[in-house]
Fold each of these.
Amino acid sequence: MKMIRTLIPILCLLCFLSPVYATEQEPLVIESYANAQKYTFTVSKSQLEKCPDWNDGGDVPFPVGKARTLGFKELHKLLPDADDYDFDTISLERQKSTGKWYYRIQFLKLRGIPPGPVPAFMVVVLFDGTVVDPVVGPMM
């Protein structure tokens, strides 16, 4: 009985701390696909928290044109057939748990494809100018 009384406060403390730990580690994960490969862009919560704030009014902390240029450079670094892709959209996305914003840049493959759906590829650029390097693996 004495052991149970000792364990109950410890278990309660662990249950209380677990959600805080999980929340602290919540990453931003975006997947994109090209050439039978999966590109997983992951940004930790702490990395996002270091980025400048934006209140969705006024100028963004990192210029859209620079983000687009960095996105093109990353596309050419990642894909051997990057010249077959054209810029499509750049969007401001918000990660909910931090309230931090980032750019999601989408390119469409318009050349060298058979008829059907147009493949899209995305690149992530943070508000501090960081281009997120993906982990590349086979498409499953």
Amino acid sequence: MAKNFGPVLFGFVFGSLLLTVVFSSEIAAQRDDGPPAHNFAGTWSLRQSNGFTVTMDLKQNNRGDLTGTATANARNGVSRGTVTGRAWRQNGASWQSNVDHFQVEIAWNGPIGVYKASASWSEGILRGETYQKDKPSARANWTAGSFARRRR
């Protein structure tokens, strides 16, 4: 008695193709082409859409690793936190379409804030979003002025 594997084989091939497309698009969105072109070391004021301003004092090594401290005015006074993260470059078709990405976590007194951003080389302004690591559904947008120095 011959069995018809046609529908099962089609489902397997289609499912494999779909998984390949989904995972390929996520990998492309997170591509790391090396250290960022810009040096994010220094003091940054992030103006958030929820009314808060976070000030970060950052250090950056040659690989793009970021460390530092942060402060923010909170309802119960000034909050202080420790910053860790990294920045990296994603190359475009030309230097004007290259993008530097920035992602740090700030360990406040309890919650951890995630800050993600990107800046095109031609624009030079960090624009991003933040959320509490354990509550990613509550998000705020933020911007930081033009970044200061290109790496040499």
Amino acid sequence: MAWELASESSEQRDIYLDSVALNLHGFYSGLERIFELIARHVDCDLPRGENWHSVLLWRVARDKEEIRPAVISEKSASLLDELRRFRHLVRNVYAVNLVPRKIEPLVSPLPELWQLLQAELMAFAEFLEDLARASEGKVYDEDWNVDGQGS
């Protein structure tokens, strides 16, 4: 609804554009938080540096050898990369500078992207559940083998 109102020319258009922009910002930021948790707790390798946001996004779109499968597809990463760039813009400009025709390409693929992301994130959650089940009751220590029996 806010998108339709933001697309119309009205005296309150900036309010609706701001609403859409902040929702896109929040959507990407929430996903990035999930990716950060995966990088920190599964990969044990959170990217650093000036472009860490981009590195993180593309890293979760790839298998981490001997650790985990890709969290999301490259298709999802490509669409999310546009939202990541837009988030940077939202953080650094005022709503009066937002242009509806430039935001529309970010809004229109969201329903399909959300369905894709839900499936990908659920598949990754299943991977984590399988990993947890496989490691239940196993001790990892240099004096013990993986079955919990002393050497």
